[in-house]
Amino acid sequence: MKADCRARTLLALLAEKWALLIIEALSKGPRRTSALKRQIGGISEKMLVQTLRRLEKVGLVERYDFREVPPRVEYSLTERGHSLSPIIVSLDRWVERHAFDILPEA
């Protein structure tokens, strides 16, 4: 991979601390921000919204505003976002298999 290629930029986005956790949570269905925050745990509202916006900008997540009072917004994966699910599952299995050997002190 070249240093200036688009793949590196996209991988940098996916490597952000919360991106894969958000994608994994949304793979189970649409979620409101508050539900995502509870499901993921440890993420601030600001960081969650910022990460959702970045994922939306690249077409992995879509935002649906119900235009109700009180306001209600849900996030869901796009088809492209759903295509990451098997990759995330494989990565999770790999981590489970190798984490203790690679990071025994963590």
UniProtKB/TrEMBL annotation:
A GO term for molecular function: DNA binding
Q: Where is the HTH hxlR-type domain?
A: 5-103
Question: Is Ribosomal protein found in the keyword set?
Answer: no
Pfam short name (any one): HxlR
Please give the Gene3D superfamilies that the UniProt record associates with this protein. Answer: Winged helix-like DNA-binding domain superfamily/Winged helix DNA-binding domain (1.10.10.10)
**Which superkingdom?**
Bacteria
Signal peptide (residue range)? none
Q: Which UniProt keywords apply?
A: DNA-binding, Transcription, Transcription regulation
Keyword ATP-binding set for record? no
Give the protein's recorded name: MarR family transcriptional regulator
| Organism, scientific name | Acetobacter nitrogenifigens DSM 23921 = NBRC 105050
